Amino acid sequence: MTIYDIAKKAGVSASTVSRVVNNKPGIKPETRQKIEELLKEYGYTPNETARGLVNRSSKMIGILITDIRYAHYMDIAFFVEQELSRAGYTCLIVNTGTTDESKVDAIHRLAQRQIDGLLTVGSTFQCDAVKEALAKSFPDIPIAMANGYLPLPNVKGVLVDEYNGVMECVKLMQENNHHKIAFIRPNSTPANLNKQKGFLQATREGKAPECADWIYQAATSLEEGYRVTQQILREHPDVEGLMFCEDEAAVSGVRALTDAGVKVPQQVNVIGVDNTRYCEICNPKLTALDNMMLEMSMESSRILLESLNGNNPPARIMLFSRIIQRETT
Amino acid sequence: MTIYDIAKKAGVSASTVSRVVNNKPGIKPETRQKIEELLKEYGYTPNETARGLVNRSSKMIGILITDIRYAHYMDIAFFVEQELSRAGYTCLIVNTGTTDESKVDAIHRLAQRQIDGLLTVGSTFQCDAVKEALAKSFPDIPIAMANGYLPLPNVKGVLVDEYNGVMECVKLMQENNHHKIAFIRPNSTPANLNKQKGFLQATREGKAPECADWIYQAATSLEEGYRVTQQILREHPDVEGLMFCEDEAAVSGVRALTDAGVKVPQQVNVIGVDNTRYCEICNPKLTALDNMMLEMSMESSRILLESLNGNNPPARIMLFSRIIQRETT
DNA sequence: TTGTAGGCGTTATCAC
DNA sequence: GTGATAACGCCTACAA
Asked: Is residue A200 part of a domain?
């Protein structure tokens, strides 16, 4: 069912039907009504592909996420999708993987799709490979980055102050008289390195500055969180606190501790980051740094939408994280 | 950069360029090579929108999910997206919400997009409202339903034997000498009603047939799982087992029990369904019915891909669930 | 082996 | 108020 079909049935031309479909003025009321009835009767829906071709706008937004399965990203994806679809956009969600090539590859795949805007989720996209690919493939559509920023003219970024956030977390443990604290991160994304800096700062100012070396690596998974905690327990039986970069490994760390007969939080404090649902499921419930995922999603989509509407929102925005105290501190 | 631009630079016509881009035969090797070089040099990528218009194929697949945030759905979405994008398709993931109108609305929104295929996730789409909307909006594109089926000529369904699965779960508790078992479900999706039937069957055959009335309702959330468990404890202090329809409420139920001083699994057994990550985070770890989400995603995308390729896979496939025993039974 | 012409469904720009 | 007509970028008969 095309506008031509409708036009024929209404005894008018296709342009008239088009005008009605798009609510353009300058149509005789009777004509409009008659056409609207036919539109409804035949269940006409405009072909967005054809529209996209002539309007050079697809009403589609690309969303880049390394792995949608991680709870934190998923929440962002959900809210952003809600928000954008309310504004009439359809979301192309692409799981990019974590390597440079796979991220660049995802960008190339999206490039064929004439998307109107792009949103990246996670600081991992704040890297040179992505910057270059974006500059080449999307030089002039609005790009918003949730938890990231790249110095390109069409990129807007929303960041969270995780440096101070993690610093406060460590200080919280120190105030609980837990000074020997290990830091565990999955990989070297800008966000995680930032957290590490916060950890180092607080550690150096604290009573156990030797812990500045207690930096461990563990992927975002239950298995790895368990493994690394056992390792830390072995290498530093006197450990008093674990500062994880994300919740998934952290909850597993809590389990590793209790399995080893270590009392949480009496002997060891544990803090995660992201404040996902996992925190509440964990027993004892996990204290976590809330990096304002909800606000970040809302700000990112708002900024993207504003750019899409031709406004020019600030290039960078910073949100402040906060600690949600539960049972592991 | 269009094929016309390339054609001009190569001194040939646009159709020749088109043929090269699409690897069509009948091009002089030198011409082909020259064009290919230009293609690379200028970083040409075909405009999928224009292609879609003429080919009547967008290489896009719509994915309908009520709420991507629920771990179980999310995993499916992830695997399906991986699988389909490997086959050259881009996924439009739409969170539909749970009401009939919002689901139908999502279908209408997708209808404008000329998608090549559709995949629904969750038995909630197995309802009359959706059936009608699909019949009207997508009468002739392949549709695959993960955990669902609708009797339409273009619909293929992958189902799980949750009836027997839940029955076996209840029997497992009965074998542990736990007979007074309550059943908790979030809403009346076909899948959940099926589980309920399994529960009833096992209960009637067991030593405490009066429990056939112990059917409770609790939404898929930590809060509700906690609330309903307290309620059950109040109304039936002698309860010996909890059979939840999904993990999220179940893990919270476990916490409600331990908070109330009830020993799990000694006094009360708990079993969830879906076998999500939550099971491992829960302490004690949650026994759950694995409804083969991974296999389901793979089967669904495989079936969809086959239909897309013009084959005609079986209309319905049934997978068998299995119990993953952990620490709550 | 290559080019020309027509069309996919829609919108925008002119005419009338 | 309404109707031709020409794009948008690509593909595919058919012709050369």
From this structure: yes
